[in-house]
Design brief:
By secondary structure, the chain is α+β, with helices and mostly antiparallel strands. It has a single domain, classed as Outer membrane efflux proteins (OEP) (Up-down Bundle). The chain has eleven helices and six strands. It has a six-stranded antiparallel sheet, with no helix packed on it. It is elongated and about 135 Å long. 29% of the residues are buried.
């Protein structure tokens, strides 16, 4: 074959041009040089590439004009207030449950594995631009009736795709952004699971508080029932009053199973969240403990930019960056691809021939691949990626608006429950005083027993509503911090052991 032979072949609607050289490797003599036009073409085309599309995420940022009342604090202060927020309830069991969730929850472990996979992709994206090298060796023997022969061969081959358009750099940026998005998804899993654990614990303690109130009222109503039965035997009360007292007592007892079931459901949820509760911890949780005290001071001043730091919003931001690089890579499909290949082969009829320099043959080649006609596939892919970029920007804006809505709702719920608590406390105080007065007036013979029963029912209702609202306030605080994306900050074990 001539040293500078030019070969053209057609495969898959692509023309391939090669500058190929084959000759024995001679001492002190350089291999043949590639054709000058090919080198010139590479220099000219190397100035072509698709630029990363520009987009403005700041245009989607909400302002500080909150519908709900908030104070004014800095981003730094907001972050400090959200770090380990559940510890501010000063409840050791709650702290223990959160730690168990962070250590054992299966959903969180899945998010950690997804982060590891993204890190793996990022790691190997860096080696895509490295030439690939392979080695071969063979030996064969041919035997016939009259003779036999042996042959040996070995060789090295290498190939390298020239990254003239920045595809490899774009792929690396995309992998980096994917890792960042996966990390934010991991953070959001932590935020959600911490809040869900705290909410389940609040639900448990709230139901136990309701049970305490109901059992205390049952004890009072049992005394009233026994008292009115004694009066009936003494000829003072009537059968109607006995029946009325019994009815009130049994109606109160009937409300116990509902709250007992709520306790069981909360325990079951905590068991799943923490990956299983020990017998000792389960016994502690089933024992009555008052609701955690509300912190004297928690963050209510919320800078609007805090929402952009929410992990799920940040994940959408990095998804935009990934899609922007997809646009770059789709655009670069319009340009030809270039490959450099080389091989070094040797062989002979003896093993020693494998090490004989005169027997080696070298091959150096450059190839160009360019689609002359693809039916609009490349153009369609470019347009598709650009539309997906617009979609990812809308997803980011939707996540930001949803975060704003969740915070506004949490603030509104917290404010309304706090105002309701004041009214319910006054109602409970009045109902308790009314029952005391009813008992005095009944013992004086001024009112009938039905009035006393009504006063007992009114007090039970007021106390139950007060206990339920205390639990609702605690849940509202938890939801506020979840909606702000609080919880993952300050966790030193976020990715410990995942980057190894």
């Amino acid at each position: 074959m001539e040293p500078d032979a030019v070969l053209f072949s057609r495969s898959d609607s692509r023309f391939v041009s090669k500058n190929t050289c084959m000759r024995p490797l001679l001492p002190n003599k350089l291999p043949c040089q590639p054709m000058f036009p090919m080198g010139l073409l590479l220099c000219v085309l190397s100035g072509c590439s698709t630029m990363t599309p520009k987009y403005q995420l700041d245009a989607f940022s909400p302002d500080d004009n909150w519908h709900s009342e908030t104070g004014q604090i800095s981003d730094r202060q907001a972050t400090e207030d959200m770090t380990g927020w559940w510890r501010k309830f000063d409840d050791e069991l709650l702290n223990q449950l959160v730690q168990l969730t962070l250590a054992n929850n299966t959903d969180l472990k899945t998010a950690q594995l997804n982060y590891q996979l993204a890190r793996l992709d990022q790691k190997y994206a860096k080696v895509d631009g490295v030439p690939s090298v392979s080695a071969t060796a063979s030996a064969s023997e041919s035997i016939s009736h009259s003779s036999s022969s042996e042959s040996f061969s070995d060789g090295l081959s290498a190939s390298w795709e020239l990254d003239l358009w920045g595809n490899l750099a774009s792929a690396q940026k995309s992998a980096d952004a994917s890792v960042a998005a996966s990390l934010e998804t991991l953070h959001y899993s932590q935020v959600s699971l911490i809040a869900e654990t705290a909410s389940s614990y609040a639900e448990l303690r709230s139901a136990q508080e309701n049970l305490r109130v109901i059992r205390a009222n049952i004890a009072i109503q049992e005394q009233s029932y026994d008292f009115v039965k004694w009066q009936k035997e003494a000829g003072i009360s009537t059968d109607l009053e006995v029946i009325q007292a019994e009815t009130t007592l049994e109606q109160t007892r009937a409300s116990l199973p509902e709250y007992e079931n709520t306790v069981n459901q909360a325990m079951n949820r905590l068991w799943v969240l923490t990956g299983g509760l020990s017998d000792g911890l389960s016994r502690q949780l089933r024992e009555y403990v008052a609701l955690p005290a509300m912190p004297a001071s928690m963050a209510l001043g919320i800078p609007a930019d805090t929402l952009r730091q929410r992990p799920d919003v940040k994940a959408k931001e990095f998804a935009v960056k990934v899609q922007a690089e997809n646009v770059v890579q789709a655009g670069n499909q319009r340009y030809p691809s270039f490959n450099l290949t080389g091989s070094l082969t040797g062989g002979g009829t003896r093993v020693s021939d494998l090490f004989d320099l005169d027997s080696f043959i070298t091959r150096l080649a450059t190839s160009l691949s360019y689609s002359l006609f693809d039916g609009g596939t490349v153009k369609k892919n470019m347009q598709s990626q650009q539309l997906q970029l617009q979609q990812s920007l809308l997803d980011y804006r939707a996540a930001l608006l949803s975060a704003r809505e969740e915070v506004e709702n949490a603030l509104g719920t917290l404010s309304s429950k706090q105002h309701k608590q004041k009214a319910l406390q006054l109602a409970e105080d009045s109902a308790s005083l009314a029952l005391d007065l009813a008992n005095v007036r009944y013992e004086a013979g001024l009112i009938d027993f039905e009035t006393v029963l009504d006063a007992q029912s009114t007090l039970l209702t007021a106390q139950n509503e007060l206990a339920t609202n205390r639990g609702d306030i605690l849940s509202a605080w938890i939801e506020l911090y979840r909606s702000l994306g609080g919880g993952w900050q300050g966790l030193t074990s976020t990715t410990d052991g995942l980057d190894a």
